Amino acid sequence: MQPTTLWDYPSQHYGEGMQGDQKYVGATPSYVIWNVIQRYTREGDLVVDPMCGSGTTLDVCKDTQRIGRGFDLKPYRSDIEAADARKLPVPAGSVRLWFVDPPYGDHIDYSEDPRCIGKLSAYDPVYYREMGKVIREAHRVLAPGGTLALYVCDYFEKKKGFAPVGAQLLAAIAESFEILDVVSVVRHNKSLDMGNYRRAAEEGNFFLRGFNYLFLARK
């Protein structure tokens, strides 16, 4: 397990296999989920991912003998259940770990479903209102002492400027959870190494996103 609050992984997946699908846009690094599961759960515990994407969390749960339930408005595969992260078919107080990697802007089209939070702009207060509902649903289903882990990045557009997604979501978490820690995970996005992106950042005097937050909180 990682001993510091700065995590840097050499690849998207661990081992010789693949957890989730690396072709899925915005897939969560499985190392991140593995570390959180190992630190905050035991074998047989229930882990929920309410925005399960390509199923990375479910694959890590299988590897670590945890019970995984993944949900999504548009299930990517058959073991992901169709449900809205704001209202899950999960009993209150039954979950040991809630892991979520939410959309943080409307730059990726995840679903045609009008309820999709990924259709909301990071500059729109409605995005934070709806994410607040997701966080409150996490509080409902988590057992006392259970852990919320939220993996997200800030957002920037040249014309609109900086959107402090992380700070606003952390404030929402703090309303009903005890904050355990904040981890920075180095991003290995290929675009960060492209000359045109770096040139634009230098000429426009703005920063490229070099890390993701991992917020950890206890009910």
Task: Describe this structure as you would to a colleague.
With 219 residues, the protein is of the alpha/beta class. The protein contains five helices and ten strands; from the N terminus they run βαβαβββαβββαβαβ. The chain has one domain (6-11, 27-152, 164-188, 210-218): Rossmann fold. It has helices at 30-40, 56-63, 125-141, 165-174, 195-204; strands at 6-7, 46-49, 67-72, 80-82, 95-100, 142-152, 155-157, 161-163, 178-186, 211-218. Strands 1-9-10-6-5-2-3-4 form an eight-stranded mixed β-sheet, sandwiched between helices. Strands 7-8 form a two-stranded antiparallel ribbon. α1 (30-40) packs across α2 and α3 runs parallel beside α4. The relative contact order is 0.15.
- Domain count: 1
Q: Mind summarizing the main beta sheet?
A: 8 strands, mixed
**Secondary-structure arrangement, i.e. CATH architecture:** 3-Layer(aba) Sandwich
Structural class: alpha/beta
Helical content class: 25-40%
Q: What is the 3D shape?
A: globular
How many angstroms does the end-to-end distance come to? 22 Å
CATH fold-level topology: Rossmann fold
Q: How many H/I helices? A: 5
Please, what is the oligomeric state?
Answer: single chain
Proportion of beta-strand residues: 25-35%
Number of strands: 10
Strand order of the largest sheet: 1-9-10-6-5-2-3-4
